[in-house]
Amino acid sequence: MSPTPTPSPAPVTDSVLELAPVLPVVVVDDPADAVPMARALVAGGLRAVEVTLRTAGALEAIRAIGAEVPEAVVGAGTVVSPETVDAAVGAGARFLVSPACTETLLVSMRASAVPFLPGVSTASEVLALLEHGVREMKFFPAEAAGGAPYLKSLAGPLPQARFCPTGGVSPANAPAYLALPNVGCVGGSWMLPADAVAAKDWDRVERLAREAFGLR
Asked: What ranges make up the beta strands (E) of 41-95?
């Protein structure tokens, strides 16, 4: 069994890709679950927590995790506009993740002064972001867009780009992604199964997070 690090205050970093081998993608329906959920993930070794802005309680969840789980690095996912950038950062998000990227969104994320992972799914989108000096990106939807073989093919012509593949990533295929030189981490939600969250089985979440931490 891979060892689990002892939780301590979250480090300051400019790179989301260096926080953990797996970035948990969290959909919070009940904000009361946010803190125990984050504590379980951190206890399992996954310090970065991406709370998606898909639910009414997402911003409240980000605020609660930031205030009560200092060992976590809480960020916001599904950032799709300047308004969501401002709302997420205002709630205390320490990084931003978008499913795709436009010029307007890129300007806003850069102005936020927190690390961000803009979403890409094609070589042209990767090249466009490299032209803007952005080297770290989210590859989404990973499996549907070509999976690990596609990212492997990008490493030759575009070695300066690094990715967090998300979308269809699982314990079965995560090692193939993590073995690639241009992958810093993967994103997924398998360590937060719906039945475990509904039952508030945070011990199970911690165990699954520990297993995810050991994938690299």
From this structure: 48-52, 73-77
Cα separation of 100 and 140, whole Å? Answer: 8
The two beta strands, 186-188 and 22-26, are parallel
Average pLDDT over residues 201-215: 97
Strand 116-117 vs strand 73-77: parallel, antiparallel, or unpaired? Answer: unpaired
Measure the CA–CA gap between 107 and 129, rounded to whole angstroms: 12
Looking up tokens 């492997």, which residue turns up? 152
Q: For residues 21 and 33, what is the distance between their CA atoms, to the nearest angstrom?
A: 23
152 is catalytic: no
pLDDT (tens digit, 9 = 90+) per residue, 133-162?
A: 999 999 999 999 999 999 999 999 999 999
Spatial separation of the C-alpha atoms in residues 200 and 32, rounded to whole Å: 10
Tokens for 202?
């945070």
- Can 200 be counted among the known catalytic residues? no
138, 152, 206, 211: which is the annotated catalytic residue?
A: 138
What is the reported pLDDT for 211? 97
